[in-house]
Specification:
heterodimer; A: 232 residues; mainly alpha; globular; B: 223 residues
Chain lengths: 232, 223
């Protein structure tokens, strides 16, 4: 597992797995779109708009997952002096921001036909919007502080302070009465979703993970190269 | 006893500095009142409308005008080298952060605390609600000072984009705004809500020396 903390080991592994992951993501996207548009049933209440779920839910999961991994890497980087954590934070923040933006926009498009408004100020929607703003602040900090030694540590501290938002996003639907529904798929209980809708959801989640992974590999490799040549 | 002397001289210096720059603090308060006027002009002088919005207006503008002075939190001391001198005199960076937070509370937030009743009279807020507003701001403003310390120490080396510091404070002050506005609007639950505010204050107060101290140390080492 050295490739998780060692840049040169990561580079070796990345050269092997980048192309397979990219091809896998294309295949999974083709399969997932086929499933979600033609091979899954309409919802009995929501009709065809339920198909937005196959984009909305995976992007929301990945937005949270990206931030959680960034938090873990910040702890590792600050406490155990692992510089790969700083590389990871710099490289991956825009990917998380894009996933959050996809989640917010698709949710808004889903909300208009189902709830009647593009946006309501309930806890889940607001906390995800705050997550998006936190991602933007991380990106802007990376752009505006010039000294690299200060920048990477300050950004890691900010990520740690901002991680208080993660449990709020996750549990907002349980703690408050929200218009947004509670989690359908959880680890503790049997999912209350039909298998015919579960299959495209899983395929789309895997597709999102693999496309995110391949972009992340590209960006981390670029970051490592720019650090080696003292460009950034 | 030596450390006590040092702390007293630290606050004497802060007092002198703030006294010579008193017009800055006064300008902050004038900004607060002028923005209340602007708010009233933009929603119209209808008494019903103002009375439903007034608490939210006061809290929002207090937050906005107290973030205006964040630029002076560490920047001046950092640029003329006083932070380094204080550290060489035996204060750890975390302790400097705590001292500075209290000094910001005393010299920037307390004048706001005194000007709240006047703002309440202008906005026709009932007299028994003023005490709740002052209590919630007394707790909330110390939290705001801690957040200000964290964000301005993060942006010490940031020469390009200083507005980022205000955005950071505003993002993390959302829970404070929520709970302190509901203190005034739902009077029965005063005790439970003020406990939540105190809880937030303690959490932020515990994070503050670690986060700001580390950022100050990084900026001074790499300057």
């Amino acid at each position: 597992m050295k490739f998780l903390v060692n840049p040169s080991k990561f580079n070796e592994l990345a050269d092997y797995i980048f192309k397979p992951v990219l091809i896998l993501s294309i295949l999974l996207f083709a399969l997932g779109l086929l499933f979600s548009f033609y091979l899954s049933p309409d919802d009995y209440q929501q009709g065809s708009t339920v198909r937005i779920m196959y984009v909305h839910v995976p992007s929301a999961w990945l937005a949270l997952l990206t931030y959680a991994i960034m938090t873990l890497y910040s702890i590792a980087a600050l406490a155990f002096r692992i510089p790969f954590g700083f590389i990871f934070n710099t490289a991956v923040a825009p990917i998380g921001a894009v996933f959050t933006l996809i989640c917010v926009i698709s949710g808004s498009l889903w909300g208009k036909p189902m709830w009647g408004t593009w946006w309501v100020w309930d806890a889940r929607l607001t906390s995800v919007a705050i997550l998006f703003i936190i991602y933007l602040i991380i990106i802007f900090m990376n752009l505006s502080i010039e000294n690299r030694n200060v920048r990477e540590k300050v950004v890691a501290i900010f990520i740690l302070v901002g991680s208080v938002n993660l449990p709020i996003v996750k549990f907002s639907v349980d703690w408050w009465n929200t218009l947004h529904q509670p989690a359908t798929i959880s680890k503790l209980s049997k999912p209350s979703i039909d298998p015919s809708m579960m299959t495209p959801l899983i395929i789309m989640t895997l597709a999102f993970i693999s496309i995110g992974l391949s972009i992340a590999i590209l960006r981390i490799k670029t970051e490592i190269i720019s650090r080696k040549s003292n460009l950034g | 006893m030596i450390i006590l002397n040092k702390i007293i001289s630290f606050y004497y210096r802060e007092y002198k500095l703030n006294l010579s720059g008193f017009q800055d603090i006064l300008t902050n308060i004038i900004f607060f009142f002028v923005s209340i006027f602007i708010f009233i002009f933009s929603i119209g002088p209808d008494k019903e409308k103002i009375s439903t919005l007034s608490i939210g207006i006061v809290w929002t503008l207090l937050l906005l005008s107290s973030t205006l002075s964040l630029r002076k939190f560490y920047q001046d001391d950092f640029e003329n080298g006083s932070l380094l001198i204080m550290h060489l005199n035996g204060f750890s960076f975390g302790f400097i952060a705590i001292l500075k937070t209290f000094s910001h509370f005393l010299f920037v937030q307390v004048p706001f605390l005194l000007s709240i009743p006047i703002a309440c009279i202008i906005l026709n807020i009932a007299n028994d609600k003023i005490i709740y507003l002052v209590a919630s701001f007394a707790v909330g403003s110390l939290t705001l000072s801690c957040l200000g310390s964290i964000s301005s120490s993060m942006n010490l080396m940031n020469q390009r984009n200083f507005l980022l510091g205000s955005v950071i404070v505003m993002i993390f002050s959302i829970p404070i705004i929520i709970f302190s506005v509901s203190i005034i609007n739902i009077e029965e639950s005063f005790n439970s809500l003020i406990s939540i505010l105190f809880g937030i204050l303690l959490i932020v107060f515990a994070i503050n020396p670690w986060a700001s101290g580390l950022c100050l140390k990084l900026s001074i080492e790499n300057n």
